[in-house]
Specification:
By secondary structure, the protein is an all-alpha fold. It has helices spanning about 1-20, 25-35, 45-70, 75-95, 100-120, 125-160.
Length: about 160
Protein backbone atom coordinates (compact mmCIF):
# COMPACT_ATOMS: atom_id res chain seq x y z
CA UNK A 1 0.00 0.00 0.00
CA UNK A 2 2.81 2.43 0.87
CA UNK A 3 4.50 1.70 -2.45
CA UNK A 4 1.29 2.52 -4.33
CA UNK A 5 0.99 5.85 -2.51
CA UNK A 6 4.65 6.61 -3.25
CA UNK A 7 4.11 5.81 -6.94
CA UNK A 8 1.06 8.12 -7.06
CA UNK A 9 3.00 10.96 -5.41
CA UNK A 10 5.88 10.49 -7.88
CA UNK A 11 3.50 10.62 -10.86
CA UNK A 12 1.75 13.72 -9.52
CA UNK A 13 5.14 15.31 -8.86
CA UNK A 14 6.13 14.75 -12.49
CA UNK A 15 3.03 16.65 -13.55
CA UNK A 16 3.96 19.45 -11.15
CA UNK A 17 7.43 19.67 -12.72
CA UNK A 18 5.87 20.09 -16.15
CA UNK A 19 3.72 22.90 -14.72
CA UNK A 20 6.76 24.67 -13.32
CA UNK A 21 6.00 23.80 -9.70
CA UNK A 22 8.38 22.19 -7.16
CA UNK A 23 7.65 18.57 -8.06
CA UNK A 24 11.27 17.50 -7.60
CA UNK A 25 11.28 18.64 -3.99
CA UNK A 26 7.98 16.88 -3.37
CA UNK A 27 9.58 13.69 -4.71
CA UNK A 28 12.54 14.10 -2.37
CA UNK A 29 10.23 14.81 0.57
CA UNK A 30 8.06 11.80 -0.29
CA UNK A 31 11.14 9.56 -0.38
CA UNK A 32 12.26 10.80 3.03
CA UNK A 33 8.72 10.36 4.41
CA UNK A 34 8.51 6.85 2.92
CA UNK A 35 11.81 6.03 4.58
CA UNK A 36 10.51 7.25 7.94
CA UNK A 37 7.08 5.59 7.73
CA UNK A 38 7.95 2.18 6.31
CA UNK A 39 9.70 -0.13 8.80
CA UNK A 40 13.36 -0.86 8.20
CA UNK A 41 15.40 1.28 5.87
CA UNK A 42 13.62 0.80 2.52
CA UNK A 43 15.35 3.65 0.70
CA UNK A 44 19.03 3.97 1.49
CA UNK A 45 20.56 7.23 2.63
CA UNK A 46 22.82 7.26 -0.43
CA UNK A 47 19.72 7.36 -2.64
CA UNK A 48 18.09 10.08 -0.54
CA UNK A 49 21.18 12.28 -0.67
CA UNK A 50 21.74 11.58 -4.38
CA UNK A 51 18.18 12.50 -5.41
CA UNK A 52 18.36 15.66 -3.29
CA UNK A 53 21.61 16.62 -5.05
CA UNK A 54 19.99 15.91 -8.44
CA UNK A 55 17.03 18.11 -7.48
CA UNK A 56 19.40 20.90 -6.50
CA UNK A 57 21.32 20.56 -9.78
CA UNK A 58 18.04 20.69 -11.71
CA UNK A 59 17.02 23.87 -9.92
CA UNK A 60 20.40 25.50 -10.58
CA UNK A 61 20.21 24.54 -14.26
CA UNK A 62 16.67 25.88 -14.43
CA UNK A 63 17.78 29.24 -13.09
CA UNK A 64 21.09 29.58 -14.92
CA UNK A 65 20.30 28.31 -18.42
CA UNK A 66 17.82 31.04 -19.26
CA UNK A 67 20.40 33.74 -18.59
CA UNK A 68 23.27 31.86 -20.17
CA UNK A 69 21.34 31.33 -23.41
CA UNK A 70 20.51 35.04 -23.50
CA UNK A 71 24.24 35.76 -23.26
CA UNK A 72 25.00 33.02 -25.81
CA UNK A 73 22.79 34.86 -28.29
CA UNK A 74 24.81 38.05 -27.83
CA UNK A 75 23.13 39.53 -24.79
CA UNK A 76 24.73 41.32 -21.90
CA UNK A 77 24.77 40.18 -18.27
CA UNK A 78 21.92 42.61 -17.83
CA UNK A 79 19.87 40.67 -20.41
CA UNK A 80 20.73 37.41 -18.64
CA UNK A 81 19.45 38.77 -15.34
CA UNK A 82 16.41 40.24 -17.08
CA UNK A 83 15.61 36.81 -18.51
CA UNK A 84 15.98 35.09 -15.14
CA UNK A 85 13.91 37.68 -13.26
CA UNK A 86 11.32 37.80 -16.04
CA UNK A 87 11.04 34.03 -15.97
CA UNK A 88 10.45 33.96 -12.22
CA UNK A 89 7.93 36.81 -12.32
CA UNK A 90 6.20 35.28 -15.33
CA UNK A 91 5.85 31.92 -13.58
CA UNK A 92 4.42 33.58 -10.45
CA UNK A 93 2.02 35.82 -12.34
CA UNK A 94 1.17 33.11 -14.82
CA UNK A 95 -0.82 33.38 -17.97
CA UNK A 96 -4.62 33.26 -18.16
CA UNK A 97 -4.67 29.65 -19.32
CA UNK A 98 -5.81 27.01 -16.83
CA UNK A 99 -3.20 24.55 -15.55
CA UNK A 100 -0.31 25.45 -17.90
CA UNK A 101 -0.46 29.20 -17.20
CA UNK A 102 2.70 29.29 -15.05
CA UNK A 103 4.72 27.51 -17.74
CA UNK A 104 3.59 29.89 -20.45
CA UNK A 105 4.16 32.79 -18.06
CA UNK A 106 7.74 31.68 -17.41
CA UNK A 107 8.45 31.37 -21.13
CA UNK A 108 6.89 34.74 -21.95
CA UNK A 109 8.53 36.33 -18.90
CA UNK A 110 12.01 35.18 -19.89
CA UNK A 111 11.51 36.60 -23.39
CA UNK A 112 10.13 39.93 -22.18
CA UNK A 113 12.67 40.25 -19.36
CA UNK A 114 15.62 39.76 -21.70
CA UNK A 115 14.04 42.00 -24.35
CA UNK A 116 13.46 44.89 -21.95
CA UNK A 117 16.86 44.56 -20.27
CA UNK A 118 18.75 44.43 -23.56
CA UNK A 119 16.70 47.17 -25.21
CA UNK A 120 17.07 49.55 -22.26
CA UNK A 121 20.78 48.76 -22.23
CA UNK A 122 21.15 50.45 -25.61
CA UNK A 123 20.80 47.56 -28.07
CA UNK A 124 18.81 47.89 -31.25
CA UNK A 125 15.37 46.31 -31.48
CA UNK A 126 16.71 43.54 -33.74
CA UNK A 127 19.57 42.66 -31.39
CA UNK A 128 17.31 42.76 -28.35
CA UNK A 129 14.83 40.44 -30.07
CA UNK A 130 17.60 37.97 -30.97
CA UNK A 131 18.77 37.94 -27.33
CA UNK A 132 15.19 37.49 -26.11
CA UNK A 133 14.75 34.50 -28.45
CA UNK A 134 17.91 33.04 -26.96
CA UNK A 135 16.50 33.49 -23.46
CA UNK A 136 13.30 31.77 -24.51
CA UNK A 137 15.24 28.85 -25.99
CA UNK A 138 17.25 28.60 -22.78
CA UNK A 139 14.06 28.48 -20.73
CA UNK A 140 12.62 25.71 -22.91
CA UNK A 141 15.87 23.70 -22.73
CA UNK A 142 16.08 24.09 -18.94
CA UNK A 143 12.45 22.97 -18.55
CA UNK A 144 13.08 19.87 -20.67
CA UNK A 145 16.21 19.05 -18.66
CA UNK A 146 14.33 19.49 -15.40
CA UNK A 147 11.59 17.13 -16.59
CA UNK A 148 14.25 14.58 -17.59
CA UNK A 149 15.92 14.82 -14.21
CA UNK A 150 12.48 14.48 -12.61
CA UNK A 151 11.88 11.21 -14.47
CA UNK A 152 15.31 9.97 -13.37
CA UNK A 153 14.69 10.90 -9.72
CA UNK A 154 11.20 9.36 -9.75
CA UNK A 155 12.36 6.08 -11.25
CA UNK A 156 15.36 5.94 -8.89
CA UNK A 157 13.16 6.49 -5.82
CA UNK A 158 10.57 3.94 -6.94
CA UNK A 159 13.16 1.25 -7.72
CA UNK A 160 14.94 1.90 -4.41
CA UNK A 161 11.63 1.60 -2.54
CA UNK A 162 10.80 -1.73 -4.23
CA UNK A 163 13.74 -3.53 -2.61
Amino acid sequence: MYLTILAAVILLSLILIVLGLPGLWIMVASAVTYNLVVPGDPIGWFTLVAVAVLALVAELLDISMTGSYARKYGGSRRAGWGAVIGSIVGAMVGFPVPIIGPVIGAFVGSFIGALIAEFTGGSSAGDATRVAKGALIGRVVSTVLKIGIGFTVGIWIFIAAMK
